[in-house]
Amino acid sequence: MGIINGKGGNRPPISSPTIVIRVNLYEVLPLFGYVVLMEYGVYGTNRGASPALYTLIGVYIELFHVGEVGFVRGRVYATNRANVNAFRGFYPYAWLCYYVCHNSPPFPNIIRWLFQPHNKEFMVCHFCGQNTENFPCGNCGSYNVLDKGFVRLVDFMGGDVAVVQAARVSFGQGLKTPERDKRLIEYLMEHGHGTPFEHSVFKFHVKCPIFVAREWFRHRIASYNEISQRYVEVKEEFYVPEKLRKQSSKNKQASEIADFENEGEILEMIGKAYREVYSIYRELLERGVARELARIVLPLGTYTQFYWTVNSRSLMNFLKLRMSEDAQYEIREYARVIYLIFREKMPWTAEAWEKFGRKNP
Q1: Per-residue H/E/C for 105-153
Q2: Cα 264–269–271 angle (5° rounding)?
Q3: What stretch(es) of the chain map to CATH 3.30.1360.170?
Q4: Which candidate in 11, 88, 295, 322 is catalytic?
Q5: Closest Cα to residue 144, out of 123, 121, 126?
Q6: What is the C-alpha to C-alpha distance for residues 160 and 357, in angstroms, rounded to an integer?
Q7: Given 173, 238, 241, 331, which is the most exposed site by the fewest CB atoms within 10 A?
């Protein structure tokens, strides 16, 4: 079969016979492994090229829209620091095109783990509290994000059809054939005709740390309603990162993955601070201090909830900025989930947006 060249770079030679299948990881790994989906090719944390998956597990799959998979201290991580479960979604598909590398793979233990039978594992949905095998949750349709957060689509109006209808009303026309309607959306995207995209609207329910919400609310062409700490007592729910990061050496406002000595102790320090602060908060309430005043001791890692109603034009602007590599990791995780929902509900628009470089229509 020889060397296959693609957008991600030169792939390694594949011995024959080998089955190569092209799969869309939006379908194979729908948030099960929390792998960020990028353009064409598998990328490692060292920004390696598309042979990364081949090198890691000795499996060749013609992948597209997959990204940023890497190894840190022997564990498999995606950009959200997910653990080795990130690759479990490959399991049934990988068998179809499995072959043994001529060169010994560098991570034999993980390779053996990947290709042995596994019992089904269930996760607890952060919204409804029920066990679910994958996400979106089979009970409520919610997606888990970070350690306690979620995103769920509450309502949706419009879709690709609404965009086409809004664009063609200028000529007193409506829908035509699917092929022509799809081409129209691509034309609108390419030439920056953005108003038709404002006729499709999403309504989300989000639970995230306060520091993520404060970044989120800077996107002002939308409607927000947030839970009030004046009306309700705050639950003991705080964000604890799975992996610590250090300040970026290249970007003053960004961070990068790093190894810390006694990382467990540092994470415990964070947890201890949360526990102490929440204890003070509870004591203030018990002593009669008003909720609106007692809340001043709570940290930015406290979880909040809000409803977010946004049209697809503004949504694409949000995704462009918050899926960017220089966006903070935590909000990127939420943007990634939002993108999956956007892509499911408006596939033509999402495809055109990707095709023309994620520019704002």
Answers
A1: CCCHHHHHHHCCCCCCCCEECCCCCCEECCCCCCCCCCEEECCCEEEEE
A2: 95
A3: 131-226+308-355
A4: 322
A5: 126
A6: 19
A7: 173
Closest CA to 155 of 215, 213, 223: 223
Nearest to 152 by CA among 166, 137, 164: 137
Q: What is the CATH number of domain 131-226+308-355?
A: 3.30.1360.170
- pLDDT per residue of the chain (361 residues) written in tens, 0 to 9: 222 223 333 333 333 333 333 333 333 333 223 232 222 233 332 223 333 343 334 333 333 333 333 322 233 333 332 333 333 333 333 322 222 222 333 334 433 334 444 455 678 999 999 998 778 998 999 999 999 999 999 999 999 999 999 999 989 999 999 999 999 999 999 999 999 999 999 999 999 999 999 999 999 999 999 999 999 999 999 999 999 999 988 888 889 888 899 999 999 999 999 999 999 999 999 999 999 999 999 999 999 999 999 999 999 999 999 999 889 999 999 999 999 999 999 999 999 999 999 988 8
Amino acid (one-letter) located at 296: I
Torsions phi, psi for 160 (to 5 deg)? -60, -35
Question: What single DSSP character describes residue 204?
Answer: E
Q: Is 11 a catalytic residue?
A: no
List the structure tokens of 169.
Answer: 């009303």
Q: Please give the span between the terminal C-alpha atoms of the chain, in angstroms, as a whole number.
A: 41
